[in-house]
Design a protein that fits this description.
heterotrimer, A mainly alpha (547), B mainly alpha (216), C mainly alpha (103), B: 216 residues, mainly alpha, 7 helices, elongated, C: 103 residues, 3 helices, 67% helix
C-alpha cells in the first residue's frame, strides 16, 4: 500500500482541530497530569528548551571571557562555576534526554502503530523527575555554584572543593532515574506494542536507534547513580575510597564515572543518527541504503560503547596495557559509525534531493558528525592523545559530535515532525536560512578550537597567552552567530503556531505510520489499528507515482 | 494480533495476557538496571580486596558471622515464602497467598532487626569508620576503614531495598484482600521478582562481607 | 509447591556449606568456593523462584545481558588494576597510585 494512499479518513473541515490531542482538554492539569505520550513529549520539549538556553547562557559568558586573553569578565572561580554549569546542564538536561524524551516520546508509538507507550503513568513520572531534578540541579549550580567540572574528579570534588557538590550530585541522581525509567518504557514498548505484521526488520531506523539508546540508558545510568552516591557519601563522611591521602584511589572514581559517561555520549548520538535515517531517505526519495547494516551498526555501536571508557583516562595513571586495550577498542567503535555515514551518503545517490530545512540539518549532521568522529580517532591514538588531552582539541572534538551532531539532529527532528506535532507548517525560507546560519556559526566557533588545542591551549582556563587570541576571537564571533542561529527557530516556529499554514497529514510525502494519521494526531493516535507489514522507507519509483 | 499473542503465550509457562508479558518484561528491565546499580559496589569491594588484601580480610573477620549467616537464612526463606505466595495467588488461593506474603514481611522485619542489632554491636566495637575505629590484626587501618565504608554503604543500601520490598509486599497483600483477580496475581508475581532480586544481592554480599579470609 | 520446598532446602544446604567451608583454611579455594556457591544459590533463585527456567527467552536474555555488562566493568576495570605496576609510563606517578595508607 503506497504511503500517500494510506491517509486518515477524510474529516469535515473544522472537525479535525477539535479531535486532536492538543484539544483534548484545555486546563493546566490536563497537560501536567496527562498520560498521553504526545503531550508528555511537548512538556519535555518546553522544559528541555528552557534548560538548553540556560546552559547556552553559561557558554555565552564563557566565550565572552575568552574573547580576550586577560581575565576581564569573570574571575577564575566564577569561570570554573560557569563551565561546570554549562557541562552539567548541557549533558544531563539537554543532550541525554533531548531526542529520546521529546521525539522518542512523541513519534515512537506512532511509528510502531501503538496507542501509547507501555507504561504511560511511568512516562509522566519520568517527566516530573526530569523537571524536579533539573530545577534542583540548576538551583545548586546558580546559588553558589559548583567548580569541579561536570566530571567531578576526586579528590578535588570529594575533599577540597567548597561548593554545592553534594546538592548537584543529588539533582543529577534524580535526573538519572528519569532517564532509566524512560529507557525502560521504550524497551518494553518496542517489544510488546508493535502493530500486527511489524517485525524487527520492519521498524524504522529511528525506532532501532531509540531502542539501542534505551538499552544503554538502562544499563549505564545506574552506574552513574551509584558513583555519584558513593562520591556524596565520601564527601559527607570524609571517607577515603577515592582519596589517596587516606589510602584510596582516584582512578576508581574515574573508572566508575566513565563506565557510564562514555556510553552516555552514545545516548546522545544514536538517536541523532536515527533522526538522520528518517530525514535523508524522505528528502532524497530513496530507501535507505543497506537497512540491515544500518540496524546492526546501531546495535554494534551500543555494544562497543561499553568497551571503550578508558580512553578518557590515558594520562590519569591508568596502566599502559589497559590503555592500549582501550585504544584498540576505541578504533573499533568507528567502524559501525563509518558504515552509517557511508550508507547515508549512498542513500543520496541517484536521489531526487530537496534541500528542505530538515534535510539541511540532517546533511549538516552527517558532515559534522563525520568530522567529529574522525578527530575521535586522533584522540584514540595513545601518542596523539598525550599531546592534545585536556586541550581545546578535545573540546572541539566533542562539540562537533554533541553540537554539530546531536543539536543539529534535534533541530532537524523538530523541523521534520513539527507539522505532525503542531499541525502547522513553518516558513521554509526562514528555516533554511537559520539552518545555514547555524552550520556556518558552528564551524566558525569550533574549528579554530582544534587549532588552539593542537597548539597547546588547555581547556577550563579563563585566560590565555596572547598568541591564542586570534583563534579565540574567531571562536567567540562564531558563538555570536550561533546564538542568533538558535534564536531564529524559536521565533518562526512560535510564529507558525498562530500564523502558520495548517499541515496535511503527510506534508513531506514520507513513509512511516506516523504520517498516516492526521496532523496533529487524535489522542488515541489511530482510528483503525494500522497495518505494520509495509517495508520501511518504501520510496521506490512505483510508489512515488501515486503521490 | 497474532504477533503480540505469540510472544505472550509461553511467558512463564502459563497462559498470560499481554498485560502480564508487559509487566514481566518491564520488571526484568528494571532489575537489569538494579544489577548495574549494585554491581559497581561489588567492583569497589573487589578493587579494595585486590589492593589491600590483608586489611580487607582482617576487617571481614571482624564482622559477625552468626548474624550474617542467620540473615542469609532469613532472606532465603523469605524468598521461598514469596515464591509460594505467588504460586497460591496464581491458583486463586487468596488466603494462603496472603499468609505467605505475611511471612515474607515478618522475615524481612526479622532481617532488619538482626541488622540493626549488628550495627549496634559494630558501633560498640569501634567498627564504624571515624575516630575510634580499630580493627584487630589489620596492618593498614585506613584500608580496613575503607572495607567498613563499603560494608555500611552496601548493607544500608540493601536494607533500603528490603524496606521498599516489604512495602510492595504489604501493598500486594492488601490487593489480594480486596479480591483483584488476575491483576492481583500478576502484581504478586512482579513484586516477587523484586523481592527475589533483593535476596540475590544479599546472596553475593554475604560471602563478600562476612566470609573473606575467615579461615586465617 | 514441592519444587519450592526442594529449592529452599537446597539453598539452606548451600548456605551451610559456604559458611562451614569458610572456616577451613583452603587458601585461594575458599574464595573460589564461596563465589561458586553464591552463584549456585543465585541460579536456583533465578531459575526456580523467579521462573526464568520456564519464561520466554527475552527475560533470560535481559538477565544475561545485564550480567555481561557488569562483567565488562569488572573485566576491563580490573585489567587496569592488575597491570598497573608491570610497566610504568612516564605520566604515571612515581609512587604507587594505590597507597598503603598513612595512619
Amino acid at each position: 500500500m503506497s504511503p500517500s494512499a494510506n491517509t486518515a479518513l477524510p474529516q469535515a473541515p473544522g472537525s479535525r482541530q477539535s479531535s486532536s490531542y492538543l484539544h483534548d482538554g484545555y486546563t493546566l492539569w490536563s497537560w501536567l497530569g496527562s498520560r498521553d505520550h504526545k503531550r508528555i513529549g511537548v512538556l519535555y520539549a518546553l522544559s528541555i528548551t528552557t534548560f538548553f538556553f540556560i546552559g547556552a547562557a553559561a557558554a555565552a559568558l564563557m566565550r565572552l571571557e575568552l574573547a580576550t586573553p586577560a581575565a576581564d569578565v569573570v574571575d577564575a572561580d566564577t569561570y570554573n562555576r560557569l563551565f561546570t554549569a554549562h557541562g552539567v546542564i548541557m549533558v544531563w538536561m539537554f543532550l541525554i534526554p533531548a531526542i529520546p524524551s521529546v521525539f522518542g516520546n512523541f513519534a515512537l508509538p506512532l511509528m510502531i502503530g501503538a496507542r501509547d507507550l507501555a507504561f504511560p503513568r511511568l512516562n509522566l513520572l519520568s517527566w516530573y523527575l526530569y523537571v524536579g531534578g533539573g530545577l534542583f540541579t540548576i538551583a545548586a549550580l546558580m546559588l553558589g555554584g559548583v567548580d569541579t567540572g561536570w566530571t567531578f574528579y576526586t579528590p578535588y570534588s570529594s575533599v577540597f572543593s567548597n561548593t554545592n557538590v553534594i546538592l548537584t550530585l543529588l539533582g543529577v541522581l534524580v535526573l538519572g532515574f528519569s532517564s532509566i525509567l524512560t529507557g525502560l518504557n521504550f524497551i518494553v514498548t518496542v517489544h510488546t506494542l508493535r502493530a500486527p505484521g511489524m517485525g524487527w526488520f520492519g521498524l524504522p531506523l529511528f525506532v532501532w536507534a531509540v531502542y539501542a539508546t534505551s538499552i544503554i540508558l538502562v544499563l549505564a545510568t545506574p552506574v552513574l547513580a551509584i558513583t555519584l552516591l558513593l562520591l556524596a557519601a565520601e564527601r559527607l563522611f570524609h571517607i577515603g575510597l577515592f582519596n589517596p591521602a587516606l589510602g584510596g584511589d582516584p582512578l576508581l572514581f574515574q573508572h566508575l564515572f566513565w563506565f557510564y559517561s562514555h556510553p552516555a555520549v552514545y545516548i546522545m548520538v544514536l538517536p541523532a543518527m536515527g533522526v538522520a535515517s528518517e530525514i535523508i531517505p524522505c528528502f532524497a526519495r530513496r530507501p535507505v541504503f543497506g537497512y540491515r547494516f544500518m540496524a546492526f551498526a546501531i546495535i554494534g555501536i551500543a555494544i562497543i560503547s561499553f568497551l571503550v571508557w578508558g580512553h578518557h583516562m590515558f594520562v590519569s595513571g591508568q596502566s599502559v596495557y589497559a590503555s592500549m586495550v582501550f585504544s584498540v577498542l576505541s578504533f573499533m567503535v568507528a567502524v559501525p559509525s563509518a558504515i552509517k555515514v557511508f550508507n547515508w551518503t549512498a542513500t543520496l545517490y541517484k536521489g531526487a534531493i530537496t534541500f528542505s530545512a530538515p534535510m539541511l540539518y540532517a546533511l549538516g549532521f552527517v558532515i559534522l558528525f563525520l568530522q567529529g568522529g574522525l578527530t575521535g580517532l586522533f584522540l584514540a591514538s595513545l601518542a596523539v592523545d598525550v599531546h592534545v588531552t585536556d586541550t581545546y582539541f578535545v573540546v572541539a572534538h566533542f562539540h562537533y559530535i554533541m553540537v554539530g551532531g546531536s543539536v543539529m539532529a534535534y533541530l532537524g527532528a523538530a523541523h521534520y515532525w513539527w507539522p505532525k506535532i503542531t499541525g502547522r507548517l513553518y516558513p521554509q525560507a526562514w528555516a533554511r536560512a537559520a539552518a545555514l546560519l547555524i552550520f556556518a556559526g558552528f564551524n566558525l566557533t569550533f574549528f579554530p578550537q582544534y587549532l588552539l588545542g593542537y597548539e597547546g591551549m588547555p581547556r577550563r582556563y579563563h585566560s590565555y597567552p596572547e598568541q591564542f587570541q586570534v583563534l579565540n576571537v574567531l571562536s567567540s564571533s562564531g558563538a555570536a552567530v550561533l546564538a542568533i542561529g538558535y534564536l531564529l527557530p524559536v521565533g518562526y516556529l512560535l510564529w507558525s503556531l498562530w500564523r502558520g499554514k495548517r499541515s496535511p497529514p503527510n506534508p513531506w510525502g514520507a513513509t512511516g505510520l506516523e504520517w498516516t494519521t492526521p496532523s496533529p494526531p487524535p489522542q488515541h493516535n489511530f482510528d483503525r489499528e494500522p497495518d505494520g507489514s509495509a517495508r520501511p522507507y518504501d520510496y521506490s519509483p512505483a510508489n512515488e507515482g501515486a503521490s | 494480533m497474532s504477533a503480540r499473542h505469540a510472544a505472550v503465550r509461553t511467558a512463564s509457562g502459563c497462559a498470560g495476557t499481554a498485560d502480564d508479558a508487559r509487566a514481566r518484561i518491564g520488571m526484568w528491565v528494571f532489575l537489569a538496571s538494579e544489577i548495574m546499580f549494585f554491581g559497581p559496589v561489588f567492583f569497589a569491594y573487589l578493587y579494595g580486596r585486590h589492593a589491600w588484601t590483608q586489611a580487607f580480610e582482617a576487617a571481614s573477620r571482624s564482622t559477625d558471622l552468626a548474624c550474617g549467616t542467620l540473615n542469609t537464612a532469613l532472606l532465603l526463606t523469605s524468598s521461598a515464602a514469596m515464591a509460594a505466595a505467588a504460586l497460591r495467588a496464581e491458583q486463586g488461593a487468596r488466603r494462603q497467598a496472603r499468609r505467605g506474603l505475611g511471612a515474607v514481611v515478618l522475615l524481612g522485619a526479622a532481617f532488619l532487626l538482626v541488622k540493626g542489632y549488628e550495627y549496634r554491636q559494630d558501633w560498640h566495637e569501634g567498627l564504624v569508620p571515624g575516630p575510634g575505629f580499630h580493627v584487630a590484626q589489620a596492618a593498614d587501618q585506613a584500608a580496613a576503614q575503607l572495607f567498613y565504608f563499603v560494608y555500611f554503604f552496601a548493607t544500608l543500601l540493601h536494607a533500603l531495598h528490603v524496606i521498599i520490598g516489604m512495602g510492595l509486599v504489604l501493598y500486594c497483600r492488601g490487593l489480594l484482600a480486596r479480591g483483584s483477580g488476575q491483576t492481583g496475581a500478576r502484581r504478586v508475581e512482579i513484586c516477587g521478582l523484586y523481592w527475589h532480586f533483593v535476596d540475590l544481592v544479599w546472596i553475593f554480599l554475604y560471602p563478600a562481607l562476612y566470609l573473606a579470609g575467615r579461615a586465617s | 509447591m514441592k519444587t519450592i520446598v526442594l529449592v529452599w532446602a537446597g539453598l539452606l544446604a548451600l548456605l551451610a556449606a559456604t559458611a562451614a567451608s569458610s572456616l577451613i583454611p583452603l587458601g585461594i579455594a575458599n574464595a573460589a568456593l564461596n563465589i561458586g556457591i553464591a552463584a549456585a544459590k543465585a541460579a536456583l533463585v533465578a531459575l526456580f523462584f523467579m521462573r526464568l527456567r520456564r519464561s520466554i527467552a527475552l527475560l533470560r536474555l535481559i538477565a544475561v545481558v545485564s550480567l555481561l555488562a557488569l562483567g565488562l566493568l569488572f573485566l576491563l576495570g580490573g585489567a587496569d588494576l592488575v597491570t598497573r605496576h608491570i610497566e610504568r609510563s612516564a605520566w604515571q606517578d612515581a609512587r604507587p597510585s594505590v597507597s598503603a595508607g598513612q595512619h
